[in-house]
Amino acid sequence: MSNIFNKEEIKEKIIENIKKVYDPEIPVDIYNLGLIYSIDLEERDNYLFCEIEMTLTSPACPVADSLLEQVRYVAMAVDEVDEAKVNLVFEPVWEPHMMSEDAKEIMGASGAAISW
User: Fold this and answer.
1) Where is each MIP18 family-like domain found (predicted)?
2) Contact, 36 vs 51, CB < 8 A?
């Protein structure tokens, strides 16, 4: 089967969209928070399937369903993606050190008390 999709370009588009998704209580997007563990793209019969593995800052997150649906929606918003599935995992457990340096700066500037 020929590879008709540039998966790296598509993955970058998905990441750019995910960077628009925020937990309403945290001033950092969920990608820079380190909540996205993997983005896998699989081509089958000229269709592109996206599977995203993500976690939450807390298993008791009150907006978990909403965040999962938003991630699926923004992945599907990429023209080349035909189907997207988001799996919620808690292994490994999310920890503050998983945040990007930008996220750590934003959290610090916002007065968030986070131990690194």
Assistant:
1) 11-86
2) no
Residue 73 pLDDT greater than 70, yes or no:
yes
Residue 43 identity: E
* Position 3 pLDDT exceeds 70: no
d(CA 17, CA 80): 13
DSSP one-letter string for the chain: ----S-HHHHHHHHHHHHTT-B-TTSSSBTTTTT-EEEEEEEEETTEEEEEEEE--S-TT-TTHHHHHHHHHHHHHTSTT--EEEEEE--SSPP-GGGS-HHHHHHHHHTT-----
Model pLDDT for residues 7-59, shown as the tens digit of each residue: 999 999 999 999 999 988 889 999 999 999 999 999 988 899 999 999 998 88
